[in-house]
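Bench log, entry 3. Co-assembly request; chain sequences pasted below exactly as received.
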Amino acid sequence: MAMTARQERYVRLAMPWLTLAVLLIAWEIACIVFDVPEIVAPRPSRVFEVIVQRWDLLVRFCLETLWTTMIGFVLAIGFGLLLGLAIGASPFVYSGLYPLLIAFNAIPKVAIVPILMIWLGIGALPAIITAFVISFFPIVVNVATGLATIEPEMRDLMRSLGASNYEILTKVGIPRAMPYLFASLKVAATLAFVGSVLSETVGGNRGIGFLMLSASARNDSATTFAGLFAIAIMGVAVYAACALVERRMTRWAFRGELVR
Amino acid sequence: MTAPDFASGASSPLVELNQVSLAYGEGREATLALADATMRIAQGEFVAVVGPSGCGKSTLMKLVTGLIPPTSGEVKVRGERVTRPIKGVGMAFQNATLLPWRSTRDNIMLPLEVVEPHKSRLRAERAAYFDKAQKLLASVGLGEFGDKYPWQLSGGMQQRSNVCRALIHEPQILMLDEPFGALDAFTREELWGIMQALWLERRFTAVLVTHDLREAVYLADTVYVMSRRPGRIVKIRKVELPRPRTLETTFQAEFVDIVHELRERIQMEHG
Ligand SMILES: Nc1ncnc2c1ncn2[C@@H]1O[C@H](COP(=O)(O)OP(=O)(O)OP(=O)(O)O)[C@@H](O)[C@H]1O
Ligand SMILES: [Mg+2]
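Structure output for the full assembly:
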């Protein structure tokens, strides 16, 4: 049963939706067959019902989370890029900062949210900073890796032409680090969501995390799950946006494949 | 100029190595890569360096261009002691290392963005430089491929671009570190011809590292044979076959004799 290339492409595009549908149906059936109480796990159809009913509310809270996440994410890109370039370009900065960065990254970010709240109060700021703090690390590591893996021959060639370190960085290093940067953005964007929702859940008065927290306090698990779905959808959307930008910006890294 | 002594060519050679040694690493970890190398390379001479793998040929290239300082001895270029990367050099390595985000033409023009006086003229005289790159590409048979990306070229085409990049800024010294090593025999022999034509036209000084003795004899005026690590220069052979040499030349008795002579000397190293 051979498929044409076009058919194969359609099937590939449909696969994630099919998988999702199968999962949701299985969940629905399991809830009915095992008679699961709604407070433990609401049926997907109930969750969708709530999403439709409380659409306005969900959108408002989602937008709050979305923009704190995006601000944190953009800060992480700027900071991560600069730090990654510094670490990748200079062995001194590398040996000075890298161990500290690893140590910092090992700290569970849940632990710093209460501290941020003491310093900054509740509101958008702790969420932005948590999103920033949790998402810059992969950017730094990737950019630094991209720079550090310049071929020694290319470096020799540039040096033999009399290129300064700055020229080597701008003509070879930075373009070379770009695919690494864009690859890290996909991961960092989802992490940024984790950060801001985390902060909203630990303590806050805004965002989808806060909505879920207060809903679960009211034993309204359908709304809590609706919040989960909303976060997942936003995460996928931002990931897809990053992947699109990646393909646009670094066609060459895909050797012309994948780009259609 | 038939005298096989070091005072070949003009009164003062362009490149001069006196008792140059190089060790990588320090203390007990140190490996001696090159030992007591003494060479004289005249202006406009085409030199080939052959020897067993790991004997320090690439190291020799880096020493001559000033990319690494010698552990002992001295390297002089144009009469001046080399302490940092020298000017007027073009290099091409075994793997083409073309930048994948630049088109072939932009790759070739990279040295123009770095080397003076081209660097400061490039913006104003973009069109002229563009033509120059185009001519060079055409001369190696890549006239239509300037807009293609390196990964759209075959291995041989990438190597030709690599050689173009090493030549675009009209360096006085061209360093070739096994640039044809990864190619099939036909493509390689074709590139010998192209290389020779470029050299006959511009008369730069060239140092070619190669494993292929026929390649060395085809292209070079002088072949240096090196011993196993730590590399020493064990034989210097002048090649005085008339130019331009062709593939026919490679079947002539004289040519074959020189190749045999070199092969015998190298086999002693493996014995
Ligand atoms: N960066 C380095 N650090 C330590 N040792 C090195 C380094 N580069 C080369 N060596 C050592 O120096 C010796 C000579 O290396 P080199 O690259 O000059 O050999 P080569 O003659 O070019 O070999 P090949 O023909 O295989 O390219 C080798 O034994 C190698 O192990
Ligand atoms: Mg080598």
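Chain A is about 80% helix and 0% strand. Chain A has a mean pLDDT of 90.
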